[in-house]
Write the structure tokens for this entry.
Amino acid sequence: FFFFKQKTAYEIYQCDWSSDVCSSDLFASDGTATSGLGVYGLPSQDVGVSGTILTATVWRLANPVINNTQPVAFGNYREGDAVAAQAVSITNDVPDDGFSEGLNASANGTTGGVLTNGGSFSLLAAAQTNATDITLTIDTSVAGNKGGVATIDFESDGTGTSGLGITPLASQGVNVTGAVYRLAEASVVPASMVMHARVGDTVQQMVMVSNVAASDGYSEELSANLIGSSGDAITSGAIGGLIAAGSSNSDLMVGVDTSSAGVKSGVVTLGMESDGSNTSGFTNNVNLGNQLVTV
């Protein structure tokens, strides 16, 4: 019989295999099926074993794990808003036992409205996490759906550990959601009126107030209010409710005072605001300035 002993799978050194010189008393001549004379013991014999096994070390590759809950949700913004970046948290999820390679990571391409800082890191040690160097945000320059994917490239790097160089690992995607809304855009037609009347006549003209922002689901509603009139201008009716993108309201009438003869003139002032309460969710209206109707 020969007896051998092996150490761990990670590190095998010379002489890790041991052998013993063994003698055997199991040699015998057996006449059971031949002479019928039974079993006769034979002399023992010694067998010697010798050999050398060289040192060998086995290393595991890095294992990247993205820790962020996905999708990374940025929520709603208005065009031009600044967006706080969110960091991508990445762990080199391998045992810290001295036999794991380091992890390299770098931000690669994106889809949709997703942006990255182009960040990267190198040689993240086993069981360690990096949550600072690669960040995500969304593009608020143009309204629309900003959902997409940011791709992160990974490598297992043996520098300082196995010494076996760099091994490419599978890339991983980070899913992102977000939306950007444009402000309402006011239009008032007509912006000026010319009226001729006799004393005592009732002279009025309809004013159409429109929200001419794109009707694509990413425009806020228009809030239009009569601020007042000056000179000989008079008004009747009111602009009721919010005006959705691509819609108009023609409830306001503008006229002139005909109680006396003469040249008449005046101005009607309308206040305009972008209201996100039913669209973007923003309740802080944005002042779009006043619109004037001259008579």
Remarks:
- The two ends are 117 Å apart (CA to CA).
- The chain is about 0% helix and 45% strand.
